[in-house]
Amino acid sequence: MSERTATLDVEQAELALVEHYGRLVRLAYCVLADGPRRAPAAHAVTCGALPRRCTSTAALPRPQAADEDPVYVWLRLRVLRAALARPRGPWPPRSHPRGGDAPARAAYALRHLERMAEPDIRQLLRAARVRDPDAALAGAVKAADSSGGPGAPPPAPGPGGEPCPLCGGGDGVRHALDTVRRRRRRRRSGAAALAALVCCGLLGVPGDTWGPDAAARPPLVRGSDAEHALDPGALVRARAGSWRRASRTDFGAWPARGALTRDESLLRRALVTWARPRADVRVRAAPGTPKGPPPGPPQLLYAGRLAGTAVVLLYDGLRVARYTEPLDPDDDSSAAEAAEEGVSLELARTAGAGTAESGALVVTRHGGEVRYLTAPWITRAARVDLLDPADESGRTLARGADGVTGPVPLPVTLPRHCESWPGLALRGSPGAARRLELYTDLGELAPARLTDGAERGPATGAAARRRLARTACHLPAVLDQGVRAVNSWQFARQRLPDGDGEAAWVCTRAATWRGAGSRVMTQFQPPAGGPGRPGAVTSRLEDSRVCGPQARAVLTGLLWRSTEGRWYVLAAGDEDVTRLRARGEGLSGGPAEAVGNTLAARAGREASVRLSATRRDGTVPAAPPAPVGPPG
């Protein structure tokens, strides 16, 4: 989380709780007094640290280490405060050294579990409202000495190998995930109840449109078009093989597939839910996607059973809608778990999709995996690791007769855990999309297409795959943003000082289906490190034309340290840049200038520099979108 962020989002805190649950609950357990309810109390204290609403980042304590998650630091403080506010008691006889009160236990835990230095412990204890941090530290040191000297190990585990039953392994993470799920369900229920109250006030007398089956009744505004759109018999169904003769091979050429395409009851529920979703239906729309009903009978793409749910995919020319409902548990063993999620409707904009962008749709996301429904012209589907440029052909995905693939792992959402990034490789038949295309799941119904270069061709060549391997771990920044395609473009190469090889300067643009809201970042990709190591982000822009087909001017830079330990200002512009200049504080030889589109100048590690450039036509572009600084 950037220091410039104005608020801490509730979902950021929930993600941090799940990731660090073991550390937080151990800390709470060590501070709490002994007793039969100690482990549940530690769980309650830990989960109770979650905020109920967005919080200003001004309340966040500063991390002690550069790589420490600031959200975790904030949660740790809240856990400490709550645990210290519990009734006091003696140190447990087996889990801790004898003697000491709650503040001393807290100091002991911070010293041995969190590995914090004494000044940092004092600061944190003061923030946790401990009156005498020095006395608490003295008690912790005394307890450590009585347990084996100043370097005593952390508190010894109990008989089960953990200090508390909830602290480690999958059980602890499941406890945290259950808490997060319950909170999100309560938030949804509250919003639904508020919406229902508002509707009550607007409608006045319910009349004949009120009741549990209201969504299945005729529309409030009666008319042939509205009623026709709710008729399963009026659904548009493309004929099998019609894509071979169609002038456009897109979603409109997909035939209806799946085992439930003739289940009129299911199809009617899907259509009615799209037209008028009940308050208990989870509705999600990608950014910029209208939520209203289809203008007429939509096209049926799929209806079948998957992962304990019945799934229906519909297309109205502008949007794809995915309707899901849990199956009867007697008919499907995994339906019991799906029943907890209930009925859902997801809408995503797909207007203007071409052949390549109509290659697949997400059918289900379940258990950390995603399954795709592939276009009828796809001859081979494979799973590839985008962080491995050598993984060209990938592992072939089995597909059913209905075109649904086997499961593909969902990409990670935390960059520091980015060890692989699953992608989808699709090859089409002659006459459709004959070339290989790459995609990845970025949270939308249509997977994002991955392209490379000024011409935005498929990112399947050797050089393109190397650039993509250094870029994929930055993709969490554009999750759930309605991304249509991600294009990377190498705009410069630079010979590095001190014989450190050659670096690439890359501009990556995530374009959306709605046109607005694009995300752009520039990267410095040095040769050191494996191909999967992310490049350094030098600037970010939102809702900009930079790096697009109509605005290719780029200028960026960063402070860089060579293997010899010397610091440099490095800068690069696009190929139309003929001269670069760097001015500011910290440059060793004063203002620097270079002919061409790259520059390297000696500087101090605290240099503050602005860049300017001259282009072939003699114009001088504006200053870069971000000041030159250390790599991001």
Share of residues in strands: 25-35%
Q: What portion of residues is helical? A: 10-25%
How would you classify the helix and strand content by structural class?
alpha+beta
Total strands: the figure is: 25
End-to-end C-alpha gap? 12 Å
Radius of gyration: 29 Å
Count of DSSP helices?
11
> Could you give a short account of the major beta sheet?
10 strands, mixed
Mean pLDDT figure: 81
Q: What are the low-pLDDT stretches, counting only 5+ consecutive residues below 50? A: 1-6, 89-99, 148-170, 191-222
Q: What best-fitting shape do the alpha-carbon axes yield?
A: flat
Structural write-up:
- There is one protein chain.
- The protein is of the alpha+beta class.
- Helices cover 24% and strands 26% of the residues.
- It has helices spanning 10-31, 38-47, 70-84, 102-112, 118-127, 133-146, 169-203, 224-228, 264-275, 335-341, 462-471; strands at residues 7-8, 55-56, 282-285, 299-306, 309-315, 319-326, 344-349, 360-366, 369-374, 378-385, 395-396, 408-409, 422-428, 436-440, 448-452, 457-458, 483-495, 502-512, 519-525, 536-542, 555-561, 567-573, 577-587, 592-595, 598-615.
- The strands form five sheets. Strands 10, 11, 13, 14, 15, 16, 17, 18, 19 and 20 form a ten-stranded mixed beta sheet that branches.
- Strand 15 and strand 16 (457-458) form a beta hairpin.
- Helix 1 packs across helix 3.
- It starts with 6 loop residues before the first strand and ends in a 17-residue tail after the last strand.
- The model is unreliable at 1-6, 89-99, 148-170 and 191-222 (pLDDT under 50).
